[in-house]
Amino acid sequence: xxxxxxxxxxxxxxxxxxxxxxxxxxxxxxxxxxxxxxxxxxxxxxxxxxxxxxxxxxxxxxxxxxxxxxxxx
Length: 73
Hints:
Elements: E1 3-12, E2 22-25, E3 31-37, E4 47-52, E5 57-60, E6 65-72
Antiparallel strand pairs: 1-2, 1-6, 3-4, 4-5
């Protein structure tokens, strides 16, 4: 059985000076999934693609905290 790590929760803020943290959790407040995307080359950045149930999405580039869980296959 193989375990793959999936993102469960992500915390970020909109600006470094901003003291308001925003928490996104899969299955809560319309968050459908959070996918981690590794940088693919020079100039590319590690980022997180957040998809919502209503079809809109966010791409987060500098999270404060990322929590994972193991998904078994």
